[in-house]
């Protein structure tokens, strides 16, 4: 299946499930449409029902990618995002699909980055067949390895435009 076919499949089959359930859709300055700005980053938290590959492609289609948690500040931001939800589970970009039990933040061009920062739930990751990473709101946003085929919510991320950031700060100072 080529990329256009995959994209068509995602738009047709994922959008009806997640489009109507989007939350945090207040547009942030310097962010892609429908992303919300948190500090220097843009996020879009999507409610239920996409597997990991669908979630990743969906985030890419709307101008971002699945969220990567590469330091404690981002972990705090993600934890705050999911803290208002009850029972929420959300995909982030981590996976060990390239090398079993070696988790990485994945990238669109096939390159990836090993985890330098982690915030696993104690005892996780513990299931070699669970190859994708979710954050759990009932665990303060800590991480769990989960079967990539599970259909849960997900968190998209995009970089904020630096130029818009300056304008945004000036406006906020007035
Ligand atoms: Ca697990």
UniProtKB/TrEMBL annotation:
Entries under InterPro entries matching the protein: C-type_lectin-like, C-type_lectin-like/link_sf, C-type_lectin/snaclec_domain, C-type_lectin_CS, CTDL_fold
Signal peptide: none
A Pfam cross-reference name: Lectin_C
Domain C-type lectin: 38-157
Keywords recorded for this protein, A-Z: Disulfide bond
Protein's name in the database: C-type lectin domain-containing protein
Organism: Potamilus streckersoni
